[in-house]
Amino acid sequence: MAVLATTAARVNGPAFDELAHLTAGVSYLQTGDFRFDPENGLLPQAWAGLAVAGDPAVGPPLSSGAAWDRSDVWTVGQRFFFHQGNPLSEMLRRGRAMITVLGLLCALLVWLWSRALFGPAGGLLSLAVCALSPAMLAHSALVTSDMAAALFFLASTAALWRLLERLNVGGVLLVAAALCGLTLSKFSAVLIGPIAGLLVLARLARSEPLPVGRHRLVGRGRQAAALGAVALVVAGLVVAGVWVAYGARWSAFEPELSSEHTAFSEPLEPMLQRTGVLQGPLRAALEHRVLPQAWLYGFTFVLSHSAERPAFLAGAWRTDGWWWFFPYAMAVKTPLPLLALLVLGLVGAAREERRRELVPLLALIGVYWAVSVASHLNIGHRHLLPTLPPLFVLAGGGARWLRAPGGGRLGILGLVGGLLLGTVAAFPHYLGFFNGLVGGSSQGWRHLVDSSLDWGQDLPALSQALQGEDGPVALSYFGSADPRAFGIDARPLPSFFPLAGSRGEPTPLVPGLYAISATMLQAVYLRPAGPWTDAYEQRYRESLARWLDWRGTAGDPAARATLVDLLGSEQAWRDELALFEELRFARLAANLRRREPDGRAGWSILLYRVGQAELTQAVAGPPPL
Hints:
Layout: H1 2-11, H2 18-31, H3 42-53, H4 66-69, H5 73-83, H6 88-131, H7 134-139, H8 146-165, H9 169-183, H10 192-204, E1 210-212, E2 215-217, H11 220-245, H12 268-272, H13 279-288, H14 293-305, E3 311-313, E4 316-318, H15 325-333, H16 336-350, H17 359-374, H18 388-395, H19 399-402, H20 407-426, H21 459-465, E5 473-476, E6 491-492, E7 512-517, H22 518-521, H23 534-552, H24 557-567, H25 570-592, E8 599-601, E9 605-610, H26 612-620
Parallel strand pairs: 5-6, 5-7
Antiparallel strand pairs: 1-2, 3-4, 7-9, 8-9
């Protein structure tokens, strides 16, 4: 698992969020200011940053200037990664290696838990499916918070279940440590509340006494009182741990680096107003300083931005999500042998005599899946990552057939062998893996985009694909990296972040090679988002006429001034031309989506050779409705 993850990571470029996570982590450690990217978890950012912050060869992220003052981690991160002379590959290698450690710890816990339930054979089976899962391999080698969340959800659930078997000081400290790690990793940590509630109810439903040290409590009332007292102690320890992690300081701002211009990236008040029923509790927590300011700001940020988010699923676009997004993502992004092993493991586990021991695993899976299905945040399969390790533990139930000679054993071993071969064949593009249900990874762009496929990681693959390319190359990129750092010199098309070379006027479209990230091809984050419509066509025709008028006055200052007066200002014209460029690109993308690409860089950047006839059709032909 370590070899596959780390070697694949060396091939892949920076994923979208890695720039923010690693920049923030190094900045936290070097400045003590916690404003950068607080919505993504202090612990994994600082943990990855440890491997970079102490290197004298790495210049620190800027801690002054306009970008610093407005907490613009993306601008500071661009400079830190690409414009300060820092060793990009080495920084990524070290930061990713720290996350790989978390992935290996998660796999270790999967093995230990499965071994305790299903014996040595079950433990090894669970370890095999965990180590060969493309999702685990992808995210255990990216500087993000997803693997940390998966580890600490599993560890917290295990520690809680162990404590409910016997209340003691060691168990309380273990639970507090795991919950503290979870709380500092990702704000979905709040789901551990209902999970813990289900575990407590399951324990109280049993007739056995509850061991407390050397004593035994009989009666549900006494047991509930004891558990309530323990819950208060654990909560107090977790709160204390969070305060310690933030330097026992309320303010997210480092006083010596702050000024009257220093602020969070977004004002707090508008976000609070979008948090619904939690607005009151959040205001109270902020007023009484229950937790550090950075943690409460990050939690508010996540809540306020999760109600609506542009998303794409199998040819459909929405901002409020689909209940079937995550079931679909699970079905198409899990290797078919692994799906079969998970089903057989669940069947085998259900036949075990100690079915009661499955309660914590089922509680974790059930609560997380219930919330995920109801969520409007449908941007990535990675949000299911915390449910994979408990499923891998349950896969150990397949040891029932391993222990019995014959067809069952051969079937399990054959499925593991098939998983191994498929995972090796998918190297190094684990993030973009799709199974045969949708035609494999080459067809993934038709089904899911964003972090399920296209997280900006394939710039090295694009650089390699462009070797020997003589004609014009145009690029529309979904990511935070700078393509020039990989030797890519392309004409800029509308991208999530403006590319170097973007002008005040639309880039002319000429025949040549068009490299388009899948997320941009599906128009998820463009202003004309989603499928091309009659309304888009009408607005495009209006904008095209204005663009032609604007271009026609290039050598006539008086005519140009008259045009400016029509819209009221030069800024209004700049906005109009920017919209025209997006509309024109969205129309081109809608035409290109009708056919297969001519090539691919990795699985996420699609390559189209576009001739003049196709360009004319895309820009001036009948609408692609």
